[in-house]
């Protein structure tokens, strides 16, 4: 199993600003995954982050809005840019086969 | 992409009752997971079960991969079982990573004392 630490656990942000979410894993992993859970909804994959290459984004998600960094095999960040209230969600990172961080509960006001 | 359907969408039980949650999926999978999301949003991995049967205490799960469904059984339910149960799969088509999950819409379980 893998232990995943995610920061911050929650935040309230002003619209138009950006928030960077950090995900730290206790072991080296090839792929890390970022998911979004909108209020009352299921989880949707945003992108797959591989170390040393550009992240691969799912349909409906773009790099300008959700830039991802993957500087090494144990760490990744997801930035939610130019936020609007519609970005209020829980954001989760995960590693294979499916260990999840505690999530970041984001509220945009 | 692969489709995942869960039923029922909502389930209300009295403490001590048993229940069965179902997950249907539209394609072959190399990963199937059941999760419990508690009221604080924490996602807890219950089973990794792309095929076969597993048991963990009051919970058990069965996946019949050839018929593309999985079942989660909860016996002698407790109030702490309340929350949302998600089924998530990774398609085995095209060499998809088994960590790249598609989630069902979930079953909201409420257990009353």
Summarize this structure as a short list of keywords or feature phrases:
heterodimer, A: 109 residues, mainly beta, seven-stranded mixed β-sheet, four-stranded antiparallel β-sheet, 11 strands, 52% strand, B: 113 residues, six-stranded mixed β-sheet, five-stranded antiparallel β-sheet, 0% helix, 58% strand
Beta content of chain B: over 45%
Category from helices, strands and their pairing of chain A: mainly beta
List the helices and strands of chain A in order.
Answer: EEEEEEEEEEE
Helix content of chain B: under 10%
N/C terminus separation of chain B: 40 Å
Using the alpha-carbon principal axes, give the shape of chain B: elongated
Biggest β-sheet of chain A: count, sense, barrel?
A: 7 strands, mixed
Number of separate helices of chain A: 0
Radius of gyration of chain A: 13 Å
* Computed CA radius of gyration of chain B, to the nearest angstrom: 14 Å
The most extensive interface, with participating residues per chain, is: A-B, 22 and 20 residues
Largest sheet of chain B: 6 strands, mixed
What does it look like?
The complex is a heterodimer of chains A (109) and B (113). Chain A has strands at 4-7, 10-13, 19-25, 31-37, 43-50, 56-57, 68-72, 75-80, 89-95, 99-100, 104-108. Chain A is mostly beta strands. In chain A, the strands form 2 sheets. In chain A, strands 2, 4, 5, 6, 9, 10 and 11 form a 7-stranded mixed β-sheet that branches. Chain A has a 4-stranded antiparallel β-sheet with strand order 1-3-8-7, with no helix packed on it. The radius of gyration of chain A is 13 Å and the shape is globular. In chain B, strands 2, 4, 5, 9, 10 and 11 form a 6-stranded mixed β-sheet that branches. Chain B has a 5-stranded antiparallel β-sheet with strand order 1-3-8-7-6, with no helix packed on it. Chain B contains no helices and 11 strands. The A-B interface holds A 31, 33, 35, 37, 41-45, 48, 90, 92, 94-100, 102-103, 105 and B 31, 33, 35, 41-43, 45, 48, 86, 88, 97-106.
């Amino acid at each position: 199993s893998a232990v995943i630490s995610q920061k911050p656990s929650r935040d309230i942000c002003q619209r138009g600003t950006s928030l960077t979410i950090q995900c730290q894993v206790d072991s080296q992993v090839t792929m890390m995954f970022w998911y979004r859970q909108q209020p009352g909804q299921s989880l949707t994959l945003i992108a797959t982050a591989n170390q040393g290459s550009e992240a691969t984004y799912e349909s409906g998600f773009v790099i300008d809005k959700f830039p991802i960094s993957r500087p090494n095999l144990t760490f990744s960040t997801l930035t939610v840019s130019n936020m609007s209230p519609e970005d209020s969600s829980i954001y989760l990172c995960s590693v294979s086969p499916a260990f999840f961080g505690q999530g970041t509960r984001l509220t945009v006001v | 992409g692969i489709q995942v359907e869960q039923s029922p969408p909502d389930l209300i039980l009295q403490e001590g009752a048993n229940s069965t949650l179902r997950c249907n999926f539209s394609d072959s999978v190399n990963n199937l997971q059941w999760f419990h999301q508690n009221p604080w949003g924490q996602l807890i991995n219950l089973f990794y079960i792309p095929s076969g049967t597993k048991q963990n205490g009051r919970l058990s799960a069965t996946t019949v991969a050839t018929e593309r469904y999985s079942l989660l059984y909860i016996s002698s339910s407790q109030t702490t079982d309340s929350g949302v149960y998600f089924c998530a799969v990774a398609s085995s088509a095209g060499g998809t990573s088994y960590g790249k999950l598609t989630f069902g819409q979930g079953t909201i379980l409420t257990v009353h004392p």
